[in-house]
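Lab channel / #folding
Pinned by the channel admin:
"Please post every new chain as: sequence first, then the structure tokens as a reply. Keep commentary short and put observations after the output so the thread stays searchable."

First post following the new format, from NK:
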Amino acid sequence: MKNKTVIFILLIILLLVAFIGDLFTGNAPISPGEAWVALFGTSGDTIIDEIIRNYRLPKAITAVIAGSALSLSGLLMQTLFRNPLAGPDVLGVSAGAGLGVALLTMLSGTAVYPFIAAMGSMAQIVAAIAGAAAVLILILGVSARIKDSITILVLGMIFGYVASALVTILQSFSDPDSLKVFVTWTFGSLGGVTWNKMPLLLMLVSVGIMLACFLQKTLNSLLLGENYAMSTGLNIKRARVFIIAIAAIITGAVTAFTGPIAFVGVVIPHFARAFFGTVNHKTILPATLLLGSILLLTCDIVSQIPVAGRTLPINAVTAVFGAPMIVWIVLKRKKL
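Reply from TO:
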């Protein structure tokens, strides 16, 4: 118990360090002292105050929200399907969000474009949520009728492939400007969530996290197999629908606001289990939230390091971090 408490304290400290480091990192040449003053008062320079308060601070908060949400979604999927490589996008929800954004870009220049333009920056978010919701409805409909979880996993992957195929078809018909907008969205970005958008993202993710916390006993039962879970009186179909809904909602919300961010949800649950030496969700769930936030904050710091005068897409950085980790997971899966 003492060791777990110490590890949690260290993770919280590491989270605070990463959060502060993210505030102090960026293209603009702002010293840590200037950033600190701008954060709690006024630096005397309106540009510095604007960058710190209205760009870097919401971006760091978004990294915490997105990192914890994607990691939690990965944990839920790995527990439900008992598959160490299951992640947030395994059910095709992220691909559905991408399809929604792709359809939106195709509507530019059409009769409905004035309505899209009136929505401003929220148009992409609404389109992504709509696409993710469409796939979620399909998945929930399938999960309510099919008993085998593996079949649901396969069908979810197929839905994702179909959505991705439709996106490719739409891209082939898009004009260069619309295509550029969509490709930029696929890079992923933590900097697009303003203070006006933050409450909606925070609400969706917070509700998902709170509901997941009530499912700790159910998740522990599922670790021993569905037959054992049924013997304890658990309604498998209802639990499955509930878990899928939570994972899909938080994944769809994060993807809608930040674009697709890969690998975080797959690797973090494994590190949580390895650090604490347990699979008990009472410990692993909060650990996953902390580790996911730390990883995405770290990736955001790395992405801000200029390369040839440019910053790196967050999706590329998480892939560079995540791919070797997945190889390690595959090689060591018997120990995890």
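NK: The domain at 2-332 is CATH 1.10.3470.10 (ABC transporter involved in vitamin B12 uptake, BtuC).
TO: also worth noting, The chain has one domain: 2-332.
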